[in-house]
Amino acid sequence: MTQVTIDQATSEKLCAAKDVVRVVDEQGRVVGTFKPADVPPYDPSLIPPMSIEELRRREQEPGGYTTEEVLRKLKEL
């Protein structure tokens, strides 16, 4: 892999990116793309907030599987 060192201003612009960035030169020609290293694979704002009470209620629900049961089922697949 080739490594390219960029100046501080460019670094700040790229680090502020939340999605893939198209990199162009001064003439507008596409040089390539940049994908930020810490972009989560999901949008955290889409996860609804869950209260402690709701978490406790869910812990008390009957059902579910033990780790052993899950592993056994996976081996069957």
Please summarize what this structure is.
The chain has 77 residues and is an alpha+beta fold. The chain is built from three helices and two strands; from the N terminus they run αββαα. It has one domain.
Describe the model.
It is a single chain. The chain has 77 residues and is of the alpha+beta class. The protein has one domain (8-76). Helices cover 35% and strands 12% of the residues. It has three helices and two strands, in the order αββαα. It has helices at residues 8-15, 52-60, 67-76; strands at 21-24, 30-34. The chain has a two-stranded antiparallel sheet with strand order 1-2. The two termini are 38 Å apart. The model has no long low-confidence stretch (mean pLDDT 88).
Q: Layout of SSEs?
A:
Layout: H1 8-15, E1 21-24, E2 30-34, H2 52-60, H3 67-76
Antiparallel strand pairs: 1-2
Count up the domains: 1
In angstroms, what is the radius of gyration? 23 Å
Look at the helices and sheets and give the structural class: alpha+beta
Task: Describe the main β-sheet briefly.
Answer: 2 strands, antiparallel
Q: Strand-and-helix sequence, N→C?
A: HEEHH
List keywords for this structure.
single chain; 77 residues; alpha+beta; two-stranded antiparallel sheet; 12% strand; elongated
